[in-house]
Amino acid sequence: MSAYERLTRGNDFLLGTFATNCSGGMAVTKVPERWDASWASNLKLAKMLDEAGIDVMVPIARWVGYGGEKIDFHAGVLETMTWATGLLAHTNDICVFATIHTAANNPVVVAKQLATVDHISGGRVGLNIVAGWNEPEYRALGLTLADDHETRYGYAQEWFDIVRKLWASPERFDWDGTYFHLDQVHSDPKPLGHIPIVNAAGSGQGREFAVNNVDFLFTPIVDPERSKEEVKELKAMGEKAGRDIRCLTFATIVCRETEAEAREYLEYYAQENADWLAVDNLVNLQFAHAQSFPHDLLKLMKDRFAAGHGGFPLVGTPEQVAEGFKMFHDMGFSGSLFACVDYAEEFPFIRDNVLPILKDMGLRT
Questions:
Q1: Which domains does the chain have, with CATH numbers?
Q2: For the whole model, what pTM was predicted?
């Protein structure tokens, strides 16, 4: 069974972790218990997630951190292809994605890497394509791709067309495109099955790319009513293109026995101990070069970035967190990634208290 078949069988609301390969995870906080992103921590967590039936782990690819007054947020990041390979070799059922920036990775190399990991894992690897702009990283890597959506997504389209042809073609072929010129290229082994593709898109060009190429479109929730309409629009775009588009989002979870305990902890780590310099650096870069978040909600977004990189907050009792996931489902989302301050410490409580409620709701079997 391919990773795509695993993620689309039945009607389960998919669940997975986000950014466990990154120092601090998604929380821009100075608290000492923030996620350390060591290999040992990731391996421990992956085994727990796998045993609990969690569906996916999705990483973030970073080369330059965001700085801060005390922390250098996301300065320590495990490279995603090797991270995914290691976790897949130690698990049995969970699907693990590699996050690949098209501008920084050669498509011929990536096609062979992913096919190899697919064989290692027995068909459980996925690809998260990133065509976005991050100017400090482009400078650090010596990249010169133009800073406009048309160029970046044109480049990403050609990049992915090459990857798909390498996976499908039994013969060598030449490629003479706008951005790539390849002579007698070939890739073997082929993937065992359909490798699921995810992409986060905010701009018009980004949505067009996602609707025409990916299996899962990743989009944040800022305002639930606005996002509900957005999901409808994206699915309608998919239907018009003859494709079944499934939408994913992401959440920041603070789950405790009582709502008061949860909100007290949120205040402690995301307000009193937020690294606001790192938050400002992160938000300024996002709003300067991305269209994922509307500018009219800057204060709200700064608070949410401090709590979890912009994830929708699910804060409260297990029942309240489960109701939040049900809200996502009712909005039309097929699943949600989530983050915690300390994933490995907090997940067992979520596993034992939230997952059974989701099963009783009929969201997961």
A1: 3-360 (3.20.20.30)
A2: 0.94
